Amino acid sequence: MVARLQRRAAMGRRLHVLRILTCSKSAQRKSVIMEALLYIYKLKLKLEAIKRELANLVAIKREYLSLMKQLQLPKKEVKVEKAEQGLLVRVTCEKGGDKLVSILEVFEEMGLVILNARVSSNLYFAMEAIVVADQEQHALHVKSITQAVTKAIERQ
């Protein structure tokens, strides 16, 4: 007799927990169990939707990363062109190290003065500068400046 009462009390506690989880207002055991099964089914559907959304986000991330790899600039690129006032030096390379300091040291060693410069190092290092010879005796050679700046970048 006591065991039967204990089982009945345990079943009542379980039904009470199911009623709370499913927000059921019913007092009948059968309808509480049906509502619990429906609740579990809805949870499964929500879980599947979340899994699909996660798979879509992973695919978008993968596509974004592949596009970023395609857009990456070459490891190093140095272009020197003649401009109105002197030479236009354009440098693009990977970010890191003291590249700007090295390039400025090269300009100083070659006797070049910077008239105007722009530097960016958000995703990669980029510099654009207009340089002229410090004195008339220093000749501006495109090839020698290109080689010197390239060596300065490689030292880093």
TrEMBL record:
<dbReference type="GO" id="GO:0043565">
    <property type="term" value="F:sequence-specific DNA binding"/>
</dbReference>
<dbReference type="InterPro" id="IPR051358">
    <property type="entry name" value="TF_AMS/ICE1/BHLH6-like"/>
</dbReference>
<keyword id="KW-0539">Nucleus</keyword>
<protein>
    <recommendedName>
        <fullName>Plant bHLH transcription factor ACT-like domain-containing protein</fullName>
    </recommendedName>
</protein>
<dbReference type="GO" id="GO:0003700">
    <property type="term" value="F:DNA-binding transcription factor activity"/>
</dbReference>
<dbReference type="Pfam" id="PF22754">
    <property type="entry name" value="bHLH-TF_ACT-like_plant"/>
</dbReference>
<dbReference type="GO" id="GO:0005634">
    <property type="term" value="C:nucleus"/>
</dbReference>
<feature type="domain" description="Plant bHLH transcription factor ACT-like">
    <location>
        <begin position="77"/>
        <end position="154"/>
    </location>
</feature>
<dbReference type="InterPro" id="IPR054502">
    <property type="entry name" value="bHLH-TF_ACT-like_plant"/>
</dbReference>
